[in-house]
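Second opinion, please. Pick holes in both lines of this record:
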Amino acid sequence: MRPLNGAGFALAISLLSAAVPAAAEPPVLDLPIDCVLGQTCYVEDYVDADPGPGQRDYTCGLKSRDDHRGTDIVLISFEAMEAGVNVLAAAPGTVAATRDGMEDVAVTDATRASIEGRECGNAVRIDHGGGWQTLYCHMARGSITVETGQQVAAGDVLGLVGLSGLTNVPHVHLGVLKDGAIVDPFNPENRDTCGVNAGDGLWRDAPDYDRAGLFTAGFSNGVPDFEDVKSGAARLPAATPDTPLVLYGHVFYARPGDVMTLTASGPEGEVFAHEVTLEDPQAQLFRAYGRRAPQSGWQPGAYRGYVQLTREGRLIAVRHADITISPN
């Protein structure tokens, strides 16, 4: 999240802390990305409302991560990112700082230390006056279209969704700050809203909240044990050409009638596509689908799977998984 083309950027990010009650006259926010919620994008993570270790979103649901300091709006696929999706100013203001030049590379445990202090990736920070600012993270290298001091209106293009900084999925992270402290745009007064609709908050028209989602997806070489799915032991990062390819998805709080779609593709195109309707889901469950290797074996190379969860045709969540087939 830091130094940029603006000396105050590093200071502003270093002051980020847990959510605090907001003061008067905040900006009114529009969606900061050019996509259609429930069709081409969805909200995956919210501000962490838990002041200690652990996490909860503003409804006390599962959709946050420990110390997560913004709202993540995620694209449906890497292919959508590659086609180009604009990041938009959520409210009018003045560009206070930008940063560009970071690579669009999914973070790994091995590379995480190399981006310390720059977790926000390529980014734009906008000042809205009265101590209010918004921060737009993980933009594509070379895509930023604005510069420090420039006036922007709500909906103006800031750049493109990318894969820079601390991320492994294409999305925009929107941070809202008041006097350097993080504010949850869904619950700016930091009220107890567990299990209830908090209203629109700072949004002109707040995105709908869905309790259900996906914990993870992964490839395995057979239908895994649920404990191995939950622990991560089922995930197979690499395999040989004769290995069966099985994709699984771990779901929480699904409803009867929700649909899971599991697809996989590789160097030669589609490997499989499968859809399953959840008739009597539990609080947590997983589903898996796959194929045995063809007689000639899988073509060596990179394979990617997507697991989608939809409700009445509306996208709720997506997770992806990657596996590499190496030559014998």
Notes: The chain has two domains: 8-183, 213-325. Residues 8-183 form a domain with the Glucose Permease (Domain IIA) fold (CATH 2.70.70.10). The longest strand covers residues 314-325.
